[in-house]
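WARN no homologs supplied; continuing
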Amino acid sequence: MEVARPPTVSIARLKAVQRAELLRRQYLPKEVRVLFVGESPPAGGTFFYAANSNLYFATEDAFVAALPALAGKDFLEEFRRMGCYLDDLCLEPVSRLDARNPLRVAARAEGQERLAEHLRIWRPKAIVVAMVAIAENVARAAREAGLEDVQEHVLPFPGRKAHRDRYVAELVILVTGFEAAGVLLRGGKAAQSARLNRF
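OK structure emitted
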């Protein structure tokens, strides 16, 4: 049986991917403490690091609820300053494909190696997966990177209202815990490593 492969990327789409990645890299922390992993940038043209996607707004709501001092601040800059970063399993949007489409499944599998390499470099203290369907892909990448002991927190993608409500509620709990345990960077200082074992 022939294995499905992701479709060839056109020059225009490649440039769009490159622009998104350049924007994303502007917010790469010096030390990645909490790595968020999404499936891909949305097919509709919005993007977390453009501050206009469903994932962006839900994540900001959760962080502000957990850490009220963030209200009114530049959330992407604060997200970076705390050591948080969002990477995507697939660099090219796949959300318009059916969930079981072989091309979408193949794109996820193909992204595991790149994610594993990033995990080897960044070695985060916690991983937050922003879609249940990619949890196993992220887990495989973590194993490849030798990070089996880093806890993976799996949340639903905040698309539908019910999923958004659950995403925000569960992320509030996680952020509160990260803050209490010293996982998040505050004021540019790393938390004591002895407190990180909880996550």
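The domain at 31-198 is CATH 3.40.470.10 (Uracil-DNA Glycosylase, subunit E).
OK
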